Amino acid sequence: MTLASSKGNGKMVAFPRGLTSIAASVVILAMFLIFASWLLVSFPIGSAIRGYFYGVDGKIVLPASKNVDYSYSNSSSGSNLELPTMNSNSSVVVNNEKAQVSIRSVEKDSMASESNVEPSSSGKDSVDLKNNATLEKPTELPKLSSRATEKKADMSGFPSSNTSESNSVDSGCDLYNGKWFYDPQGPSYTNNSCPVITQMQNCQGNGRPDKEYENWRWKPSKCDLPRFDAKKFLELMRGKALAFIGDSVARNQMESMLCLLWQASIYTLKLPVSWLNPLFHIEQFLGFEILEQWYVREWIVEVPQNRGNKRMQRWHFVSTSVMIVRLWSSWLVRETTEKIDFAPEGVTKLHLDAPDDKLMEFIPNFDVIVISSGHWFAKQSVYVLNNEIVGGQLWWPNGSPPMKVNNVDAFGISVGTILSAILTHPNYTGLTIVRSFSPDHYEGGAWNTGGSCTGKEKPLAIGELVENGFTNIMHEKQVSGFERAVKKATNKSKLRLMDITEVFSYRHDGHPGPYRNPDPNKITKRGPDGKPPPQDCLHWCMPGPIDIWNELVLEIIRREFEGNRNSSS
């Protein structure tokens, strides 16, 4: 029996229907996988997915042969200065209760404009994950003799903390006793990947020829200080506001925090080239770039919204409702210019016994405050206590009564005043972190008398540190003011001292120096007379050592917040 041919054009030849269906299904499935991968990376739902696509949970491998250690020491045997140095580190818990306070929108414009103390002066870096050696742990150093214990102030008159000792910020280890070590992995961002760096601190953009100052990290002797984890920070601070309060060095730290957090908004998808070859160069219209054997695409999923003004800069991370704020306050106390007694109108008067009113009105809006000051006390000002002129800086008329308060004493009084105001504010229940006095590194003079930090490319080693008497006494006065404020505390807020002064005295390599602007014709070498060019040895390069400050801030917040969660569970 012969089967009749099917009706239609006898010349048409077709592939079996099953094979066509399979080919179409493969193409559709491949496109679905690519689209699904993009969705998962853009909106990650778990650490496993994040680790698979961009390796945040993987072990980072660094060649041990490049690891160089500089130990941290506080020996004062080589110092012939008569000024005393601080011999203890204070840290206090006022209470462990934490209120969640939402930040209000403020658009007032009466804050004084910012100016620096000194004259004017980042796609992600790729990380090699192919090696098998882990970062070598620096050897443990003995505790510094001058800071043998971290003192907890006695707050027995206030409600006791529920936080267990193992979770409190004072437990674990001393974060400020350790060593600097070289980390080949480098910084978390570059000067090109962060759009908020002030030009004066953009050292690479301003032509600084060396880069190794970016690679030195701090290692406490008895614990680890993790690299800054932007996603961890935003999760811990979800729904909260953090404020940096102070002068241009506080602004420097705020910008470092923003640069570190900016990296949390960048998502990277990597697919093997072999996956896309069968799809006839589909990568061309999906926006991938070819890097070696990978197709790579990056997305900036969230750009923080700048809702600030000159008085108050505010950056809002919408996905976690985190607000990063900067409030300018040069001296942290009340500042006036009207005539008082023999001090004429126009000269700045500092009322050392009254906090900055423009600052205090915002305090209840913040959950975490990082506060700092000190360097403006080198500027001209008149000191007032109980409406009486008691001293001045770069101002004291001939024939005036003997000066009772100098600029160093005035700084100590101001610290006690502002911290007492915060610790007694009836509507503030947050965490206050006092960042200790930031050391400068002008050698051979002051900022305006030929001081220089040019040519410093790595941290000081043991035995190389020359004690700075002014830095030491400013640190001592700051801690004394801190301790006086603790005794006056009445609210349920918490207070921490982030004691970076001695640690960062070793980082003379971290300042812009003469690289303060992008002018290709700027002078960066000493002149024929041996005088150095104008330079900035106070503020910090970005990226650079100042990023460690925010690693310490994150660690303090982590211990505080996670400790409270553990104690309440």
TrEMBL record:
<dbReference type="InterPro" id="IPR025846">
    <property type="entry name" value="TBL_N"/>
</dbReference>
<keyword id="KW-0812">Transmembrane</keyword>
<dbReference type="Pfam" id="PF13839">
    <property type="entry name" value="PC-Esterase"/>
</dbReference>
<feature type="transmembrane region" description="Helical">
    <location>
        <begin position="20"/>
        <end position="41"/>
    </location>
</feature>
<feature type="domain" description="Trichome birefringence-like N-terminal">
    <location>
        <begin position="172"/>
        <end position="224"/>
    </location>
</feature>
<keyword id="KW-0472">Membrane</keyword>
<feature type="domain" description="Trichome birefringence-like C-terminal">
    <location>
        <begin position="225"/>
        <end position="555"/>
    </location>
</feature>
<keyword id="KW-1133">Transmembrane helix</keyword>
<keyword id="KW-0735">Signal-anchor</keyword>
<feature type="compositionally biased region" description="Polar residues">
    <location>
        <begin position="112"/>
        <end position="134"/>
    </location>
</feature>
<protein>
    <recommendedName>
        <fullName>Trichome birefringence-like N-terminal domain-containing protein</fullName>
    </recommendedName>
</protein>
<dbReference type="InterPro" id="IPR026057">
    <property type="entry name" value="TBL_C"/>
</dbReference>
<feature type="compositionally biased region" description="Low complexity">
    <location>
        <begin position="156"/>
        <end position="169"/>
    </location>
</feature>
<dbReference type="GO" id="GO:0016020">
    <property type="term" value="C:membrane"/>
</dbReference>
<feature type="region of interest" description="Disordered">
    <location>
        <begin position="104"/>
        <end position="169"/>
    </location>
</feature>
<dbReference type="InterPro" id="IPR029962">
    <property type="entry name" value="TBL"/>
</dbReference>
<feature type="region of interest" description="Disordered">
    <location>
        <begin position="508"/>
        <end position="536"/>
    </location>
</feature>
<dbReference type="GO" id="GO:0005794">
    <property type="term" value="C:Golgi apparatus"/>
</dbReference>
<dbReference type="GO" id="GO:0016413">
    <property type="term" value="F:O-acetyltransferase activity"/>
</dbReference>
<comment type="similarity">
    <text>Belongs to the PC-esterase family. TBL subfamily.</text>
</comment>
<dbReference type="Pfam" id="PF14416">
    <property type="entry name" value="PMR5N"/>
</dbReference>
